[in-house]
Amino acid sequence: MASPFPKDFLWGGAVAANQLEGAYNVDGKGLSVQDVTPNGVTTPRTEGPTEDNLKLIGIDFYNRYKEDVKLFAEMGFKVFRTSIAWSRIFPKGDELEPNQKGLQFYDNLFDECHKYGIEPLVTISHYETPLHLSKTYDGWVNRKMIEFYERYVTVLFHRYKGKVKYWLTFNEINSIVEEPFMSGGIYTPKEELSDQDLYQAVHHELVASALAVKLGHEIMPDAKIGCMVLSMPTYPLTPNPDDVVAAMQAEQQNDLFADIHARGYYPKYMNRYFKAKNINIKFEDGDEEILKHTVDFISFSYYSSICKSGDPEKGKETQGNLFAGIENPYLKASEWGWQIDPQGLRLTLNKYWDRYQKPLFIVENGLGAIDQLITDEDGNKTVKDDYRIQYMNDHLVQVGEALEDGVEVMGYTSWGCIDLVSASTAEMKKRYGFIYVDRNDDGSGTLERYKKKSFYWYKEVIRTNGANLIGVTKKL
Ligand code: BG6
What we know:
By secondary structure, this protein is of the alpha/beta class. It is 37% helix and 13% strand. The protein has a single domain (10-463), classed as Glycosidases (TIM Barrel, Alpha-Beta Barrel), CATH 3.20.20.80. The protein has helices spanning 17-20, 61-75, 86-89, 100-115, 131-137, 144-160, 180-184, 195-219, 241-263, 269-276, 287-291, 342-356, 386-404, 453-463, and strands at 10-14, 79-83, 119-123, 166-168, 224-230, 234-236, 297-301, 306-308, 317-318, 325-326, 360-364, 374-375, 381-382, 409-415, 435-437, 449-451. The protein has an 8-stranded parallel β-barrel, surrounded by 5 helices. 6-O-phosphono-beta-D-glucopyranose (BG6) binds next to loops.
């Protein structure tokens, strides 16, 4: 049976600088918001870096990237998604000149990728706002952030044009609503942050994102620049129209971000919300024009779905990727309570395609699980992660279904292709990788890398261009 995946499908994996590089204060790097959040989003931040913060060392990718890229190449990656740590390039964020050593590191990394024919896919800002910008300016609440971001992206585009073709402006830009500090560098505690300031910060990020698209197209005419949103299909808990409306409203809150990136203007449905919350977004001269610079493609993360009800008393709360909702009685959940819903990925792909008619890129998907390192019959250390293979197989089957539905999908980069520190809980034991890294929550471990069973499985998926997936050819 022929595979539904197009010949040039971009198979690969994804990571973020702050979750794996380590070297948090090496070669001139400044502190970022990640260096003061040893427990992810769950506890208050610290004043400065503390030893219990696993991200300070990460998996030492800064020193071991050559070994890791070689492993990605062995799996057959066509693309590798990583982010640039903003505070490596501008340690404080508001300097006029970039840090050359920081720039050199990414030159080396991208060269290493190209050595194996792997195309880098770069997130410009992935939850790693320089701490100075957060403390001094209150992050994206302040309009000056647009200027700092513009300087940063201009440096990146000039430096890496020809080396990086695919760019994402902000990781999960919509998550600022849930996690204003991690996502938007907003130092004001969430409980004290007004809706007005929050949505003004959203506006600043959206303008900055569109500005990056404009500049990127001018500086690198061949580049493709996308937005990146956290997708979270939201189902009505029951067919009760009250629940259906509640689900629609939750989806609109989320769709705002991709709508503006793809269409170039604010959707009308938000007027009602802004009015109800007394939010008055301040547009400056030229903002409307800048927003018209729409993205080349829509990228998104997909892990789970949630339900909503019109009745606030109804349903049991469930966890999800930063966005919580009501538990779906038809779905099972991961060890971290994220409900597993492969068909939600097909629905998401169809929805975005219908809505925007722009190519889609799944840049995060995967299962965070506790792995057991064992020694196999041949004496090799490995992990028999059949649960991860099952999860990814089932999701990729649904990508196949969406392709058959006529959706245009550019590629798929699984999240955390090598074990790294988790974002929401800052743990090592929540592992996503095809490659096991010997590091534990207490900081112990040799940092050695071991191939899991899923390593060989994914290699085969890429080699066969998805033809080996179980169920992929199933018809409606
Ligand atoms: C996304 C982020 O929210 O989900 C990643 O873009 C993150 O940075 C991933 O790691 C998985 O979440 P977690 O909390 O399990 O690491």
